[in-house]
Amino acid sequence: MPSQLLTAATSTFESLALLFADVPASDAQRAAPLTHAVRVRFTGPFGGALDVAVSDDVAVALAANMLGHPPDAVAADARLRQDALGEVGNVVCGNVLPLVGGREAVFHLAAPAPLPPDALAGVLAAARDTATLGLEGGRAVLAFHVDPVAPATPSHPEPATAPLSPTQ
Hints:
single chain, alpha+beta, 6-stranded antiparallel beta sheet, about 40% helix
């Protein structure tokens, strides 16, 4: 059974960007270097972040399909690629949070922030869930993080806890 992150990511890339996922990714797709990444932080019943990193050909196809620009124009404009990736990050995060936190939970998403792609390797191990999609000739890697819950102190009541298992 696919994870909730994989489900949300696959449907978002397919419906928003018309990029159809290969799961599992091929060896060639997994070898494509990650060149663009964003982080979308969220707060609510629990806090955390969603990181999305993609290879260059995926970033170009993503922006070209979403914005209706020719791939050559998108390849020449890093801002367009970053903006499109940020929008995908927002939508994936908005789609996965109700699956994890429940439909009634209210979350607030921060604006997507650029993330150095090389920083993603260090955060993957700490992620609650990860997903890799083969897209075009490259890949997308997503990491869902839940912030640790601080212990209660006399001056601070017991904090809301993040769910230990996803809500169905």
